[in-house]
Amino acid sequence: MAYRNYTADGSYWTVRKQGSIYWVVRMRRVNGSYEWLETWGGYERAGAAAGAAAQLAYNQAREDVLKELVGTLHTALDRAGLGALPTPAPVRPPDRSQLPAAAELDEPED
């Protein structure tokens, strides 16, 4: 993984200038060329665009890390035998037609 790929999908947020507009874009390098995956918006000042790109990168990286930690935590708990217990099958009352006649006599009368 290259140093720029600070998201789980190998993309990164950056700024690209076209004309007088600084665009905040999410990019990924594919076969030696760069692919624009998403455009956040355009700014007149480079600093504003860079700040937006940094915030977007932070938020995406944070989400990626949380997803990875949750998965790792659940895997570790399962290995230790502390994972979630399987949901038990629902308990159904017996079918009255399958009960012997003597069992029907044990019920209280209304």
Poorly predicted residue ranges: none
What is the percentage of strand-forming residues? 25-35%
Mean pLDDT: 80
**How would you classify the helix and strand content by structural class?**
alpha+beta
Largest sheet: 3 strands, antiparallel
Query: Topology as H/E string?
Result: EEEHH
Q: Helical element count?
A: 2
Q: What's the shape?
A: elongated
Number of strands: 3
- In angstroms, what separates the terminal alpha carbons? 74 Å
Q: Main sheet: which strands, in order across? A: 1-2-3
Overall radius of gyration: 29 Å
Give the helix level as a range of percent. 25-40%
Q: How does this model look, in words?
A:
The chain has a domain at 1-68. The radius of gyration is 29 Å and the shape is elongated. The mean pLDDT is 80. The chain has 2 helices and 3 strands, in the order βββαα. The chain is α+β, with helices and mostly antiparallel strands and 110 residues long. Helix content is 35%, strand content 25%. The longest helix has 34 residues, at 46-79. It has helices at residues 46-79, 101-105; strands spanning 12-18, 21-30, 33-43. This is Integrase. Residues 81-110 are annotated as: Disordered.
